[in-house]
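Sequence only, no structure available. Ideas?
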Amino acid sequence: MASILHTEASDVSIDVGLEFVPAAAHFADYKNLNDIFKGGTLVHATIQKPIEEIVDYIKTGEKVFVVGCNNCAWKCHSGGEDETQNMAKRLEKRGVEVAGYSTPGPQGMSLCKLDHTRKVLMDDYAEQVKQADSFLVLACGQGIHTVIDATEGGMVHPGCDTTFGGETVSESQIDEFCSLCGECIVEFTGGLCPLTLCAKGLLNGACGGAENGMCEVDADRECGWVLIYERLKKLDRLDMMAPYREPKNFAKWSRPRSLMVSPEEATFCSQDGKRTVSNQD
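Reply:
I predicted one. Tokens follow.
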């Protein structure tokens, strides 16, 4: 199964929530994620968005705190400690004011561990976070939502596209916030993915069938677009609801997909073709 990535045995361990599994000690020597991980870990593969797209998200005068992930994004060279620090420098080089940056936890610690991410951002980096107007998240869609929860509704910008992945395991419940489509649009929906949260995957607002804020497809679930509307309202960004959003390019969602990575660049391959993004200037 192409979306399952494994780890190679070594003396290093990666914490994946319920168990510890062996991890490769030196990832920089490999070019293909399928060669890197052999043995058990499931990964959300991410590729950084082009720097021009990221900068375009940020308003003039907006102070940004950059957040990376020390698990999946670290392995993909899209949001580990080096990439997070480098992204801060790249933003400053382009005139963006950076309030601070952090890659929570030791290597192997996922950003989507809510309690840990909350402690790091709200306690360990409290002063820098207070100065920030928004968070640029170098992680998958799950990590983006974790930052929203950890910061009690902070404004987020996606720094990566999540291309494919495995499973996120917890002791009692799994909540899905990212469909791994490879074409992230949560910049325009307050960090909430309509493709995932809307039962119909609508990209341009609610269908009209919701009752009392609950989905007509599943009465036990809140309407995804009601959640997005309330989120944008809280952020004073209801203007984001107005523009028409083009249909998704589902060729990027085709199977199997692959991601070729190095510390300098990454190439995402799908039926849409090859897309290479540099992580450096």
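The CA atoms of residues 167 and 212 lie 32 Å apart.
Hope that gets you unstuck.
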